[in-house]
Design a protein that fits this description.
Herpes Virus-1, about 425 residues, mainly alpha, 3-stranded antiparallel beta sheet, about 60% helix, 4 domains, about 5% strand, Leucine-rich Repeat Variant
Length: about 425
């Protein structure tokens, strides 16, 4: 490494040049050696290779391969140097977790998929794969590149009558970490035995199994183009009941809430089976859980509410819940533009069908919210819904509001 590189000051301490990456000139945190013998920080050399470079940055010699060998000796020296300079505010770099070796991943997948292997060997291999996939994105990519999805699906559905199979449960836990292709989703959705098996897992004694099953169902629904296949899945009553129960009774688990909302939204995209969601108690559950959700999940929940409000039974269910209208009014302009649009759409549907909902909306302060909405930078669709709702509620406004309505009746906000 050229000695002309200026020392790097870190917390007013000069960093030895041989501790610095030749590419970034920063202190190396995970030094690795390439085929030319030069050492770089892993992140820097991976970025170099990712941009199409095929030569060593220092020597300019062609890289025969891109195998990166961890330089443990140099890393320990850097860590010792950090400890020695702790008094100057230098923090010791952590020992990095090495990415999974492709050979080891192949071996684990082979152990897990070989039926003749003892149960303990297959189960241990699946648990190890799950741990590797959770450790880092690099491990996830390595596992994904070895046809892991096909192997995991084979293990998961090898005996659909065995709902208590620990192997199936572990395979499911790993499989839900990957995005399935359309053909893989179709392969699951077109097999009624597989769909029924997943619906049964929604009522498993293990919370993780229940949530993982809901996650896979959502993935399959979102990954298929065939509306007929989606309809066949949505026609399984147990799926709506299971997903709704996850939202209703597992609210203390953030992942359960997130997956439950995503799955219910995917199920309700199909209009002809939305009544099943209402029958399963989805309307009441969505309202009860709305304030527990973060931004993205709240948007999906409100989108689902608007979808269910488009059918008579959904409107009736939401209208009968005392908190529905006040919560929807409160949501306007509070979460996001999308959330505001969905809330306004749901209110429009409810107020069109129920005079009581109109009175509840006015009592909750919807007039002020809607006037602010039509003057905001929200979406055009949200503004149109707000204008329609203002016009619909005109007869329900309090007398003092009507008396003072000349202040905006002739403006460009809402043409009456």
């Amino acid at each position: 490494m050229p000695g002309s590189i200026e020392p790097l000051d870190l917390c007013n301490v000069q960093v030895p040049y041989y501790f610095r990456c030749p590419i970034s000139l920063e202190l190396m945190r995970d030094p690795v050696t390439v085929s030319t013998g030069q050492t770089y920080d892993r992140t820097s050399i991976e970025s170099w290779a990712a941009t199409g470079n095929t030569t060593c940055p220092v020597t300019r010699a062609p890289l025969s391969d891109f195998t990166l060998i961890p330089n443990h000796t140099l890393r320990r020296l850097i860590q010792d140097w950090c400890v020695a300079n702790r008094a100057f505010g230098i923090e010791r770099i952590p020992t990095p977790k090495q990415p999974a070796e492709p050979g080891m991943v192949r071996s684990l997948l082979n152990q897990a998929s070989t039926v003749s292997n003892p149960f303990s060997v297959r189960h241990s291999a699946l648990v190890r794969l799950k741990g590797l996939a959770r450790e880092s994105e690099k491990n996830w990519n390595v596992i994904c590149s070895h046809e892991a999805r096909e192997i995991l699906m084979r293990i998961l559905f090898s005996d659909v009558s065995s709902g208590s199979s620990e192997l199936s449960q572990e395979a499911l836990a790993v499989l839900v970490m990957f995005q399935l292709t359309e053909s893989e989703c179709t392969g699951i959705g077109s097999d009624s035995n597989r769909v029924v098996y997943l619906s049964e897992l929604l009522f498993h004694s293990s919370i993780e199994v229940r949530v993982n099953s809901a996650s896979l169902i959502e993935t399959v629904l979102a990954g298929m183009r065939s509306s007929d296949l989606r309809a066949e899945i949505c026609n399984v009553d147990e799926i709506f009941a299971g997903v709704t129960d996850i939202l209703k009774n597992l609210s203390s688990y953030p992942r359960a809430l997130r997956i439950g909302v995503r799955a219910l939204f995917a199920l309700c995209l199909l209009k002809q089976t939305r009544h099943k969601a209402v029958q399963a108690g989805a309307a009441e559950t969505l309202i009860d859980r709305l304030t527990d959700l973060d931004k993205c999940d709240a948007e999906r929940a409100l989108a689902t509410i608007e979808l269910l409000c488009r059918i008579p039974s959904g409107c009736s269910a939401f209208a009968s819940h005392a908190l529905t209208v006040p919560l929807l009014v409160k949501t306007i302009l509070r979460i996001s533009d999308r959330a505001t649009e969905y809330a306004a759409g749901a209110l429009m549907a409810l107020c069109s069908e129920s005079e009581q909902s109109q009175k509840d909306a006015v009592s909750a302060g919807v007039l002020t919210q809607l006037l602010l909405l039509v003057q905001s930078d929200c979406t055009d669709r949200a503004k149109r819904k707000a204008q329609m709702l203002l016009k619909l509620l005109r007869d329900s406004w309090p007398e003092d509001s009507i008396g003072n309505s000349d202040d905006f009746a002739c403006s460009e906000i809402v043409p009456f």
